[in-house]
Amino acid sequence: MNDQGVPPFARARAASGALFLDDRGRVLLVRPTYKPFMDIPGGCVEPGETPYEACIREVQEELGIRPAIGRLLVVDWSPSPKVGDRVLFVFDGGTLDDALLRQIRFVDKELSAYEFHSVEELDGLLIERLARRLKAAVTARELGRIIYLEHGQALPVE
After folding, report:
1. Contact of 58 with 16, CB cutoff 8 Å
2. How far is residue 125's CA from residue 39's CA, in Å, rounded to a whole number?
3. DSSP H/E element including 123
4. CA torsion through residues 122, 126, 132, 134, sign
5. Any residues with CB less than 8 A from the CB of 96 and at least 6 apart, and which?
6. Which residues touch 132 (CB under 8 Å, ≥6 apart)?
7. Does the pTM exceed 0.90?
8. CA–CA separation, 154 vs 156, rounded Å?
9. Residue 44 and residue 149: Cα distance in Å, rounded?
10. Which of 3, 62, 105, 109 is the most exposed place for a label (fewest CB within 10 A)?
């Protein structure tokens, strides 16, 4: 409680990313230059920007391309003692064809490479929460629905 007896509010940061697949159904992962683990294209939502707009901007900044970004696939409430509460959005980036892949340029130097990996390989390549989030995004894409997660895990359905 503060001085006026009002409880504190959650102050979650928001971030957005895109799930891209290749024509074999493999997931696009990128190698950031500023952290030791792989990720998907995306980043923090800036003030006055929607999560969808942030996804489009981040993909363009990081990969130098502007593919059509589709519907929301996953929302993940991801609290962390180290970095604070976060709400993470994953949007459907669709399938990247060879022509679009040839246009990728690491414009802002935040990334050094990209690779495609099968869904089965994600557990060995990513931090646990991100692997769970991406597997849920692939499922959401297949089912045509949005999946809500907490800590990268779906809540039990009653």
Report:
1. yes
2. 9
3. helix 122-125
4. negative
5. 20, 21, 22, 28, 67
6. 149, 152, 153
7. yes
8. 6
9. 18
10. 3
Token readout for 86 is: 């976060």
pLDDT in tens, 21-73: 999 999 999 999 999 999 999 999 999 999 999 999 999 999 999 999 999 99
pLDDT of 2 strictly over 70:
no
Which residues 6+ apart lie within 8 Å of 112 measured at CB? Answer: 31, 32, 33, 106
List the structure tokens of 89.
């959005």
Neighbours of 117 (CB within 10 A): 17
38: which 2 tokens?
A: 């792989």
Q: How many residues does the chain have?
A: 158
- Residue 87 pLDDT > 90: yes
